[in-house]
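This section describes the prediction task in plain terms. A model, or a person checking by hand, is given the sequence of a single protein chain and must write out its three-dimensional structure as a string of tokens. No templates, partner chains or ligands are provided. The sample shown here is typical of the held-out split.
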Amino acid sequence: MYDFDYQPQPQRLLADEDWVSTPQTDADRQVGQKASAAMTEVLKAARPTWTEYQLAGAGAEALWARGLHPALTLVAGDRRLPLYRHATPTGEKLGRQAMLVFCARGYGLYANLTRFVCFGSLSKNEAELHRHV
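The expected answer:
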């Protein structure tokens, strides 16, 4: 059906781990760690009474404070979480649970993170769904 001209990676690339420079690897790791710290900070501070805009804004602020550019920040609260995979924030209250997504840019590299927060207990069905994510 498809006529792809598949070319496997040269063995020298597969065997040589030095083809990605150490400074680039360190920068990539640093962007990921900073973005992760920002998201953890924001989700620990978040409250169910916050709006999706407030969570997105707090996330962007935490990224800027760490020298990262918030290229994309997505948020879905309790009502919209099952409806949208890529939810742009709205003025709705978060409710019992929320999803926060970052695409954070630093040193020309991007770190992409998705995390969920629950302000109570998950139902058995919700816990099972989260286990599969």
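For orientation: The longest strand covers residues 97-106.
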